[in-house]
Please model this.
Amino acid sequence: MGLTITYIIITIYSLALVLIFLYSLAQLNLLVNYLGYKRRNQTAPKFNLLDPKEIPYVTIQLPVYNEEYVMDRLLENISKIAYPKSKLEIQVLDDSTDDSVHITAKHIETLREAGLDITHIRRENRQGYKAGALKEGLEIAKGDFIAIFDADFLPDSDWLKKTVIYFKDPEIGVVQTRWGHINRDYSTLTRIQAFALDAHFTLEQVGRNARGHFINFNGTAGIWRKECILDAGNWEGDTLTEDLDLSYRAQLKNWKFKYLEDVETPAELPVVISAARSQQFRWNKGGAENFRKSVWSVITAKNISFKTKFHGVMHLLNSSMFLCVFIVAFLSIPMLYIKNAYDNLEWLFQATNFFILSTIILFICYWFTYKSIQGSSFDNFVDYIKLFFTFFSVALGFSLHNSIAVLEGHMGKRSEFVRTPKFNLNSLTDSWKTNKYLSTKLSPNMIFEAVLMIYFLFGMYLAIPLNDFGLFPFHLMLFLGFGFVFFKSLTARA
Model:
């Protein structure tokens, strides 16, 4: 290996490690914010819903697309929202192209006859996808406040009463709630997803919101002030995460966001890996697209502090961490050769400590968020250790798939908004295999994931002849992670 190539590999590897370390430091700062916020008594002006004059008019928007398995459940649940009917409108923004349209229309008619103000809104095309549907519904919405729920969300009947009250503060543009998971324990895949989402909805959302840093509306389970949407420029469909896009445009215009950790909105997690793949791809590509679209506006904004800018940039770079992780993983085997070929460069390998330290920081941060939901007993800590390393391994296994999404986002490659199939599974005995929305095509990335599984198995073997076991645990997790993603993708198909 030539000296020039060696230094290029070392430079790229080190830069990726430094970015991961900066991200972990940002997470650690969010943990400090989170713990400080939990200790403070929170006061905020609230509407008095016992006074009819203070009850605001709310429109609930339900953007749906081919949701046959969950439409009845969704409509029944939303119809039970406890709120004065004279101040509540429900819009079903239905872009469906299958038979679910007729089932939905019939159910809506039944609810309308029961006295609910509910409308079935259909478009001639899916222009702008979800953002386009929300924008079109907004044009005729009666409410001053717009609550949004995806098809798999099941808010409690008192959800509106717990959330809309905070809009008494005229500076509040959004109230967002924490996602719950009705099928958390369905499988290893759902437990991992719940673990990652719980960290976002505790550590990150609270940690940012506590210090006035930018957070994001999560696309569902929250309410917007209509004036805020319009002032920020309305919904735009030029990224795959229209929620993150509008969130940043609104906060750059000085609107405040209110995050409610204590209000949980249950939802369904994808139970099959092809569905998780499509969701992960959309979220990570959308994150990169929004970095491309919004980062300069954040950096040059004169109305926000340096620290808010730093957290904003790291937030927008969130999905790009998968690319950094993949670079570190892929180059770790060439780095083993370099370490043993060039004794004078051995000091550079202290950079690996950045990754170890980053992992320890994330381990600590995620424990505090895990115990806030699951409890802090010794048994829970043992379960946490197992779950953390399972999550870490599978996240590594997704790093190639998500890196491709991130690269497409940064390069501006456009792609279709691919919905995540819903299942309506109520118990572990329910099967997903008859779901007609599932893709039966194998992902072409699987071939590379299989090759990477073997590549990191070779990395584990390499520790023996080189007598260097420092990276063995890392390569083991990579081998297991890519193996999990490959074999689940190969076998878990309808």
Summary: Strands lie at 58-64, 88-94, 118-122, 145-148, 172-181, 222-225, 256-267.
